[in-house]
Amino acid sequence: NGNNAASQEDVRQSDMVAVLECDLLSEAPMMALAVRQAWRGGAKVYLVGGEGAQDAGHRLYEPTAALSLADVPFASARRPVLVSGANRKGLSGAREANLEGVKLAFIMNGPNAFGTALLAHETDAVSLTDALASGTIKGIIAMEADLSPELPPEIRVLAAADWLPTRLLERAEVVLPVTSWVEMDGTYINHEGRAQRFKQVMRSGLPIKGLTPELHPPRIHRHDPPGGEMLPTWKIISELLKRLGAGPVDDPFNGRWEELRKLDPESGGIKCFCGEILPIVRPLNKLPSEI
């Protein structure tokens, strides 16, 4: 919440950082840089989980191994921070530890998991595990979601849209290729609750060489590169809603989401909770830490 949520600046200014259940270098490289800056400023960094704990960030700083959070001397620090993964083990470990006076930063399991959590809370969505346990789910359409391999075999994966060759695509009856994040404009909300814009840096498409067995470029004149007709996932969802009778969504930045249109990719973004609640998330009556 507003009192104990740690921003990246809080991490940079801390004098003790504990890393729990996350691999910062691969999952949150900017946070890994913040931990490195704290370490270079004299902060002690603890990698919780003993010798088996994995964190490639040790290439950026020198952590001390700790078997559990109880072995981290938070009381001896003036500005301690816990950086934890948001999986069950990380959350349960944070709940069970005495973290009074310790600021918290949870690394979400995806670049827009925070935004998804806000929407899930607002729409009273249930977890996929609970939905499957109800026995009412017969089929799934997955949009850029690599679901668990333990997905019951009787559940049909009707379609899957992704730009990565995930395991789910092997089960999908229909596969829809989509643009990756570097091939589109977009918005995401990071672990701080900060909405940020990113811009397209390249166009989707296949390389000119090697499109045919003869390794010859296509002989058809066209303005777009071959394979450049792929769409962002939200446009595919919009088309599905239209065909289901819900009406098309021509632009996601309308209504209460209009505020996001003003975001500048070069700016620091805008906060969506903790004192600067915008109209786009004002209906929430709980902070993200309570979701």
Spell out the blueprint of helices and strands.
Elements: H1 8-12, E1 16-20, H2 24-27, H3 29-40, E2 44-48, E3 64-66, E4 80-85, H4 88-96, E5 103-107, H5 113-122, H6 128-133, E6 139-143, E7 156-162, H7 168-171, E8 175-177, E9 186-189, E10 194-198, H8 233-243, E11 270-271
Parallel strand pairs: 1-2, 1-4, 2-3, 4-5, 6-7, 7-8
Antiparallel strand pairs: 9-10, 10-11
Poorly predicted runs of 5 or more residues: 273-291
Q: Name the shape in a single word.
A: globular
Order of helices and strands: HEHHEEEHEHHEEHEEEHE
User: Quick check: average pLDDT?
Assistant: 81
Report how far the terminal alpha carbons are from each other. Answer: 11 Å
| Main sheet strand line-up | 3-2-1-4-5
The main pleated sheet reads as:
5 strands, parallel
Strand content: 15-25%
Brief summary:
By secondary structure, the chain is an alpha/beta fold. It is built from 8 helices and 11 strands. It has helices spanning 8-12, 24-27, 29-40, 88-96, 113-122, 128-133, 168-171, 233-243, and strands spanning 16-20, 44-48, 64-66, 80-85, 103-107, 139-143, 156-162, 175-177, 186-189, 194-198, 270-271.
